[in-house]
Amino acid sequence: MRRDWDLILVGAGLANGLIAWHLRHTRPELAVLLIDRDRHCGGNHTWSFHASDLNAQQLRWLAPLIDHRWPGYQVRFPAFTRQLPGEYCTITSASFAVHLARAMGERVLTGTAVSRITPDTVQLPDGQTLHAQAVIDGRGAQPSPHLQLGYQAFIGQELKLPEPHGLLQPVLMDATVAQGDGYRFVYTLPLSPDRLLIEDTHYIDHQHLDPAHLRQAIGQYAAEQGWSGGELLREESGSLPIILDGDFEAFWGQAKGMPCSGLRAGLFHPTTGYSLPCAVRTAELIAAAPCLDHAHLFNSLRESARVQWRQQRFFRLLNRMLFMAGNPSDRWRVMQRFYGLGDGLIERFYAGRITLADKARLLSGKPPVPVGAALRAMAFPDFPSRELP
């Protein structure tokens, strides 16, 4: 293996995988190496997004990786069931790994847990040191004292049913289920006429839930929907960070000049946890870089994250109202009110492009949480230097 590279990507998850994919097609002359500790790139995940989250050019270069598309989706709450328009798309990590392997060839090094990384070197377990103009660390979220977080914890099971399930489009949130110590909903994707992905999801204050309890809940939900007797094909789990507040400069100061991507860089939607649109924009940022010097990439990635942090201030305020105002078992009321708003506002919310009018609409009317608690959450003082000038 060569020891000198233009770019080394450590961690072959969504963010670094999309960087590698986009560079392979836009700048094939670059020597790019993708390293991951697992046997396959992408891990065990399902990444979904709304087509309206991306522009037409982004959708074109991402298209070969998309496994499933639906023309709309549904949400269910105690007060209503609603169909929403807009294409919804999913990428599975299994096909993601296949596409990356074909595109990258011998430039993918899997089953390798690196011993040490710096902004321009990677040390392998055998002692060999690889050099690059830049190394990007995309190994997932890491704990930080500089972020105040809630969590979106879930377990998902892919089931093959003995009979067709009859579901024609995704159910992004079924909140008619029993609640608990946070906002609970079931997320269902119809992957084929007889295959489903069912996720039991909780917006909670802590990071983990009892896996056995969630598996039992999925089985109960499937039976209630008439989907009994399914064969378990695959199981995935996760705990996505939901940002309530934080100190941006201190958070990025932890990197100590190390270029980062994905969750490690804080590049995800602060309320939904969706990370694919941010990963797409990061891949384009790297591809457009005039040079791949690690100092330049670090500054570019940090500035991109800084811009997003400013733009997401209102989302963090809403997150605090969701997590810190009212009883955790009543959080579904906040989401039910949100999904009663206009289609365009909901679409812009997912895309992270809400307008001043949208903000006013979100805060107007009778709040679904106690007013006093909402005001205290809005004024949350734990990070007095949290907002950038």
Keywords:
389 residues, alpha/beta, FAD/NAD(P)-binding domain, D-Amino Acid Oxidase, Chain A, domain 2, 3 domains, eight-stranded mixed β-sheet, six-stranded mixed β-sheet, 28% strand, disordered C terminus
Can you describe this structure?
The protein is built from 12 helices and 14 strands. It has 389 residues and is of the alpha/beta class. It has 3 domains: 4-69 and 88-145 and 246-311, FAD/NAD(P)-binding domain (3-Layer(bba) Sandwich), CATH 3.50.50; 147-243, 2-Layer Sandwich (D-Amino Acid Oxidase, Chain A, domain 2); 313-378. The chain has an 8-stranded mixed beta sheet with strand order 3-5-4-11-12-13-10-14, with helices on both faces. It has a 6-stranded mixed beta sheet with strand order 6-2-1-9-8-7. The chain is globular and about 60 Å long. The chain starts with a strand and ends in an 11-residue tail after the last helix. Mean pLDDT is 92; it is low at 382-389.
